[in-house]
Design a protein that fits this description.
The protein is of the alpha/beta class and 405 residues long. It has 14 helices and 13 strands. The chain binds pyridoxal-5'-phosphate (PLP). Pyridoxal-5'-phosphate (PLP) binds next to helix 4.
Length: 405
C-alpha cells in the first residue's frame, strides 16, 4: 500500500478516529447520499472564518490569505482531477454547475442540435439538457442500458449523428454503482464531433480521476461525496472555456479560465474545507489505497447478503463502486430502512434515487441502497448483513402468505 506498511484495515481504522461522526456505534452506510466528514475539514472551514474574512483582491492580510486559499484550492483540485488549476470551476453543487455550463454551451447551439444522455444517469445530468432542449428546440436522445445495468455502448453509438453536440454520461451510477468505460464513451463522442460531458459525482469518492487520460471535455463532481464540504466542482477543458461566453458580472476577469464561470463570490470557507478533504485523502495513501480497501469491503458485503436478496447491478466488485441496490420480495424496503436505523445502521430506501431512466428500465420499485466508503470496517459490514438477515426473517416483515382455506 502506497506509503504505508500497515494492513489496510489498520490504516483505515486509524482514519476513522479523525471523524467525530464515526466515534459512536452508529454504522453509516449511505456514502452515495453524502459521506461522513473528518473533523479536520470542519476545523479548516472554521479557520477560514477566523483568519481570512472579507473578500479576495484587497491589500490587507485577511484578504491576501483568501487569495492564497483560492489558489491552493484550485491547485489541489487540479491534482485530484488531473487538469490544470485554471480549468477548475467551483460552484454551489454539481447540479448547479451543470445547469450553468449547459446554459453557457446553449448560447452556441441551434434548433435541431442533439444531446445524448444515458439511462444510467442521475437526473442532475439529464434535467439540464431537457430544459435546455425545451428552451432552444434541441433533441435529447437516451442511450440504453443492458439488463445488468451496464451501459449499452452499441445503443449509445446508434444515438450519435451529425447533429450530436454533447454526450452526457455518468462515470459511475449513483443507484447501482455500475462503472462506465468513460474512455470508450469519450472516444465515441469525439468521433461524432461531440463534447464528452462526464458526471463523476459517484466515481470521484472511489476511483482516481485523470480527465486527460479519459478525454473528458467537462467533468463534474461534488466534494460532500468524498468527505468534503457541500461544494460543486467542475473541470472544463481550457480551450473550450476560452471559446465560451460565460454568464458573469462584467468586471469579473476571464483569467484564470475557470474563474469567469464562477458566478459571484465563492464560498471561501468551503474551499478551506475542500483543501483539508483532499489532504485527508493524500494522508491515506491516495485513491489506489482506497480502491483496494473498498474492494475488500464490497466483496464482504456481497458474500454476506442474506438469501432472497435481489441485487440490482453487477454481482461482483468488477466494474463497480461499492454501492449496492438491494430489495427482498414482499418486504417493503422503506420499513427495512426504518428497522435498520433503529438498530443503528444508516441506509436509505428510495424508488428512483433520481436515476429516473434506470428505474424505469430495470424497475426495482423501491430498494435499499447500501453505500460503503473507505472508513467502513469489515466488522461493520458483518454486523449489517447479520442484522439484515435477522430482519428479513422476522415473521412480521415476511410477505403475507395466503391463508389456508
Ligand atoms: C451521479 C450523481 N450526479 C449528480 C448528483 C447531484 O449532485 P449535487 O448534489 O452536487 O447537485 C448526484 C447526487 O447524488 C449524483 O449521485
Amino acid at each position: 500500500m502506497t506509503g504505508h506498511s500497515a494492513e489496510p484495515g489498520e490504516v483505515f481504522g486509524r482514519a476513522r478516529a479523525r471523524f467525530s461522526g464515526l466515534n459512536g456505534s452508529f454504522v453509516f452506510l449511505d456514502a452515495p447520499g453524502g459521506t461522513q466528514v473528518p473533523d479536520e475539514v470542519g476545523d479548516a472551514v472554521a479557520r477560514v472564518y477566523r483568519e481570512s474574512s472579507g473578500n479576495t483582491g484587497a491589500p490587507y492580510a485577511t484578504s491576501r490569505r483568501l487569495d492564497e486559499l483560492v489558489d491552493q484550492a484550485r491547485a489541489a483540485t487540479a491534482r485530484f482531477l488531473g487538469c490544470s488549476p485554471d480549468e477548475v470551476i467551483f460552484g454551489a453543487s454539481s447540479t448547479a454547475l451543470n445547469f450553468m455550463l449547459s446554459r453557457t454551451l446553449g448560447r452556441q447551439l441551434r434548433p435541431g442540435d442533439e444531446i445524448v444522455v444515458t439511462r444510467l444517469d442521475h437526473d442532475g445530468n439529464v434535467a439540464p439538457w431537457l430544459d435546455l432542449a425545451q428552451d432552444l428546440g434541441l433533441r435529447v436522445r437516451h442511450a440504453d442500458v443492458h439488463a445488468d445495468t451496464t451501459l449499452d455502448l452499441a445503443d449509445l453509438e446508434r444515438q450519435l449523428g451529425p447533429r450530436t453536440k454533447v454526450v452526457a454520461f455518468p462515470w459511475a451510477a449513483n443507484a447501482t454503482g455500475t462503472i462506465v468505460d468513460a474512455r470508450a464513451v469519450c472516444d465515441l463522442a469525439h468521433r461524432a464531433g461531440a463534447l464528452a460531458w462526464v458526471d463523476a459525482v459517484q466515481y470521484a469518492p472511489h476511483q482516481p480521476i485523470d480527465v486527460r487520460a479519459v478525454g473528458a471535455d467537462v467533468l463534474l463532481c461534488s466534494a460532500y461525496k468524498f468527505c468534503g464540504p457541500h461544494l460543486g466542482i467542475a473541470f472544463g477543458r481550457r480551450e473550450l472555456l476560452e471559446s465560451w461566453q460565460p454568464y458573469k458580472a462584467r468586471p469579473v476577469p476571464r483569467e484564470p479560465a475557470g474563474h469567469g464561470f464562477e458566478t459571484g463570490t465563492l464560498p471561501y470557507e468551503l474551499l478551506g474545507g475542500l483543501l483539508a478533504a483532499l489532504e485527508y485523502h493524500d494522508s491515506l495513501g491516495g485513491m489506489p489505497a482506497i480502491v483496494a480497501w473498498e474492494r475488500q469491503l464490497g466483496e464482504r458485503l456481497l458474500a454476506g447478503l442474506p438469501p432472497g436478496a435481489n441485487l440490482y447491478g453487477l454481482p461482483s466488485m468488477a466494474d463497480r463502486v461499492p454501492t449496492f441496490l438491494v430489495n427482498f420480495d414482499g418486504i417493503p424496503s422503506a420499513q427495512l430502512s426504518i428497522d435498520l436505523a433503529e438498530l443503528g445502521f444508516g441506509v436509505w430506501s428510495h424508488g428512483s434515487y433520481y436515476a429516473l431512466g434506470l428505474h424505469e428500465r430495470i424497475g426495482w420499485g423501491e430498494a435499499l441502497r447500501i453505500g460503503l466508503a473507505h472508513y467502513n470496517t469489515l466488522d461493520e459490514v458483518d454486523r449489517f448483513t447479520e442484522a439484515l438477515a435477522t430482519l428479513v426473517k422476522r415473521p412480521d416483515r415476511r410477505p403475507a402468505t395466503p391463508a389456508l382455506s
